[in-house]
Each structure stands twice: as structure tokens, then as C-alpha cells.
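Give me C-alpha cells for this 678-residue protein.
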Amino acid sequence: MEQLEPKKKMKNFLPLRLNLLFLFVFLLFGLLIIRLGFVQIVNGDYFRSQSELTKTIEASVQTERGKMFDRHGRLLVGNEPSFALTYIRVQGTNAEDHIHYAQKISEFITMPTDKVTQSDLKDYWIAKEGLEEAFALKLTEKELEPDNLSDDEQYDLLRERITEEDLAPIKKDKLEMEVVAIKRELDQATNLNIAFVKKGLTTEEVAKIGEHLGELEGRFSIASTSERTYPSGYTFFFGQMGAIPAERLDHYLLKGYAQNNEVGTSYIEKKYEGLLSGKEKTFTFTTTKSGQPVGSPEVSTGSRGYDLVLSIDIALQKRIGEILEKNIVEARSKGEGPVSSAYAVMMDPNTGEVLAMVGRKTEDGKFVDDSYATLQKAFEVGSTVKGATVLGIYQLGDNIPYINDKTIKLPGAPDFSSYTPGIGSVNDLQALEQSSNVYMGMAIGRIAGFEFANIGGAYKARVINNERYQTTFQNLRNVYAQVGLGVKTGIDLPEEALGYEGAIADNPGKLLYYTIGQYDTYTPIQMAQYVSTIANGGYRVQPHLLKEVHYSTGTDEELGPLISEFETNVFNRVDNTTEEIERVQRGFYLVTHGSQGTADDLSDTMIAGKTGTAQIDGRGKYNLTFVGYAPYDDPEVAFSVIVPNLNDGHVNVEIAKEIMEAYQDSKTPGSDKDKEKE
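Here you go.
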């Protein structure tokens, strides 16, 4: 019994220690609850306000854009790496602060002053004088009274009274003008957005700024950037870069762009902005409620945009330019007219890939690039439209077997006749071969209800302005639209011109002139789409310059993996049978290979096509044109040529022959690259 006593005492001791532990834990929880209650009830508003004092703001710097290559992998548009001075504006920064920063920065960089405006100079003068002092100098005491003028009215009056005499000392001081230019860039910055002060810093400028960044309160830094380069020369369809247009600002902001970003503003740069623009490098700032940054920003690296392969053959583009220049010079030397420009477009009629869009003109005795005109300028093109007219004859009426080609006397209008007299009796094929105006005019005229009385050496026409005439005019215009004439081609470039579409003429005789390309006007790219439609069997295909999209490899020599290819887009097929289209193709073959073809100079080539001569004034001046494709039995390329303002010659045919030779040369492996090296 005595041996059990210690065990009993031990049992009594354990509950006591457990009770003390529970009591201690209870007291701790009690203190915690009291503390939480104190924080929530007594100081809740304070801590809540403190938690709301910080927020995050994201700023970004653009990375390199994607590059552009031609169809053979030659670099067309690249990036030249450079360094830029950037600035981060903090809320509460004023004009005086910007003058202080600008004066400091001007010690380290040379700043161009060409963008400084009169308004910038006045802003600088006010900030330098101090606002109160400036008001005192330029406004009377009465004008400074709030009851007489509002704050805005006072400020406007102040700026108005700053004279040239006030600004003259600033303008004379080159260093001070640089300070104004720097301040101008700083003033345009918005709170916690990264703004560029100067791009293209020299190595010396980078070194100087780097040594003194600590003196600039963390507001400035050096960032890597790039400028567009054009190793093969600039061509209009590449497009330009620039600030976001004001009318498009909301659109880009919704897409995540910063207000100070540069974007493509024209042509390919604009059309494919979403592919070319890279993923931006972002800076995430934590700020106080007053907008002051707390600590260093979090940085996420960006990535370069996608690379584009264009359908263009840049060597062929250059060669065609040389051919146009040579033929302009030769035509002038032969006395064929005051020709000063020429245009050519070449494309694949089956896929719509544009191989070249070239224009040249002379200014002050020198040749300049006018390639944009292939998209933007429209011309009367003459008989090259007759292929479309014949398709219209098939669609709107019966094929007229033969017409005796002789002058048509129109009431109230000049006589209507063919360019070449004495053609004789022709059918549709011979009318294309010999370019009979009379066949086209009479065939469509009969569909419109016109009557042509044979009076021996001519026809006397009776034309009526009625519903049948107006319907025929519009129906023929609809046929033209089916092949691409008088409508936008849909090329993947913004700002395509439509050309001139005249109203249905009150004088019905104008219908005859419409059938021979002497009424509406068309662009070179429209003419190329039109002849492509005939070449490929009647399918109107969208012309395009984008061929492929690739991931970036970071080098100029090698393309990354393929992302996508441009798929051929067929807008419509003409409302003609295969046999009818083949008949027009046969007529185009006879133009270049027939015994009486108007372009029989091309009989030793594989070209089929149609010549055109459009009278452009009453003094014997013409536009000479040509549309064609090759090989005629299996077309792989189609093209248009327009040479304005001649009075004689066959320069259109000469250009057609030479650009096709250039195309054949471009197909020879290595030849185009070898020529470029030379």
C-alpha cells in the first residue's frame, strides 16, 4: 500500500499544470482579441486609409518591331539599335522643375532645336521669369483682379503680350535653345509614363549621362531602342512610323498602347501593326496616393514583333524602275512626246502575290520614285479595257459575228472611229487583234437600242437617252467591276484610290467612248487585277504584298519558324462561260502573235495582251498602255504598263517586253542576287 502513494501524488499534480497551461493560452487569446479590437475599432480608419495610400501603375517601353524580307529572303526593313534618354514624370512636377532638369541635361547631350515652336518659347519665358513675376510684368493691377478677368483669360493675355523682343535673347543663345528643346520634351510627358527625351544618343552622350544619373533624382535613364533601316532602299509600300494619330488614340489605348508609343502610320507598317509591334518591356510602379513612386519598379522584358515575308522581288522592283527610266529617256529623245513618267505593276494572276509596283517621274531634270502612284493615281487607259468590253458583249447580248469597221457619225458629238483606219470586216477576235473601236461601240450600242444606218463610207447613228440606254451603261460598268475595273482591288494596303467614275452621260454617244476606255479612269493596280482575271480563267483574285509571317530569330540572315501564310482570296468569278473567257484569251494572243496584231513586236515572246491608246486632250496627246500575261498557255505572271502624255511611238510595248525579260531573269537561280551584288 505504501508503494502506491507516490503515484497518487503524481496524478494530482498533472491536472494542475494542465489547468495553468489552459489559463495561459486563454489569457494570450484574450490579449490578441483585445489588440484586434483596438486596431479595428480605435485605429481602423487610420490603417484603412494607409492601405489605400498605395497603388500600382504600369508604364512601358516599345521593343523592336518585326522585320520585313522580300520573297527571296533579302532584308527590306530592319532595325538599327540605338540608345535613348528616357524620363519618368512624377506627379507635382512643374515647369520650373523641368527647366532645372533641362539645364542639367543640356550639359551632357546636344539637342536638336528644329521642333521648338513659338509657343514653346513663350512657355519657357514664363517658367524662367516665374508665373507671378510674369503676370506682374505683362498685366496691369486692374487686369490681375479676379473680378475683371478669369485665370484662363489672364494667362491667355499674358502669352499674347510676350513679344519678339522678349524672346530674342533666348533665340540668339544656342545653348539656351537646347534647354528649351529639352524642356519641350519633358513637358509632354504624363505622370509615370516613360517619355523619350532624345533618341540616337552618341557613345559619348551615353557615357556622360551614365556618370551623372545619380544627380537626376531617379527620373531619367538610358534605354535601348531602334530606328527603322532600309538596306535595299525605301519603297513607298513599306510605310512610315510616327506618333499615334489623335483621331486613333482611343483605339490604340484600348489595345494597351501607351500614349507616347510610335505606330505604323501608312501602308504595310499600318496595315500589319498588330504583327510588327513587339511585346513591350513594362515597368510596374508602386506609388503613394500623391503619386510618388515607392521603391524600384518591377521590370518585365518584352519581345520583338513577328517578321514578315513580302511577295515583292526587290531586285525585280529595282530592275523595272531602271527600265522605266531608260524608256522615258528614249521616248523623249525620239520626239515621241513630253513624256515624264511611267508605271508598271506585276503580279501572280493565280495567287494575287504582287511582285513589283513601280513608278518613275522626272522632277527638275532628275528621276524620282513615284511608285505610290500605282496605287493612288488613275488614268484613262484606252483600248486595254476591250477584253472587258467583249466579255460584256457576251454577257449582255449575242456575239455579233462581223462588223464592217468604218466611221460612226454621232449626233452632237465628234465622229467615232478606230485608231487605225481601213480595218475592214472584223469579228470579236479580230476586233481585239486590230483594236477596232467601231466593233466595240456598235456591239454595245445595239444592246442599248441604238441604230446604225449604213450610208456608204460611214454609219449614221441614232442614239436615244432612255431607260434601255442607261441600263446598258450600268450593266457594262458592272461587267467591268467583275474583272476589277472601277472598283478597289482589295490590296492589303490602306489608302487605295478608286479612280474616276463618271455619271451616266446625258449624251448617249458617250457610251461608245466608254467601251474603249475613254470615260472612266483606272489605277495601274486595277489594270493588273483586270488582266489577271482574264489570264487565270475569270477569277478576280485579291492582290497582296504579305506572303508569310514568321517568328523572329533575332538575326537578319535567317527566318524563324513559319506562323502563317497569306491564303489566296478569290472575290468573284465573272459571269461568262469558260469558252467565252478562252475566246478573249485567244484575242489577246492574236494582239501579240497575229499577222495584224497591234503588238506584233512581241511575237517572239510568250506574252498575250492588249495595247491601249487614250486621247487625253485635243492636241494629240495620249496615254499609251499595255496589259499582258505570260506564258500565254499557262500564265504565271500578269502585268500592266501605263505611260502618260505621248503623241506617238510604242514605248508601252517596249516596256512590256523588257519587264518580262527582267522577270525571266529573276527566275534564274542566283541571278538576281548576283546582279544586286554588282
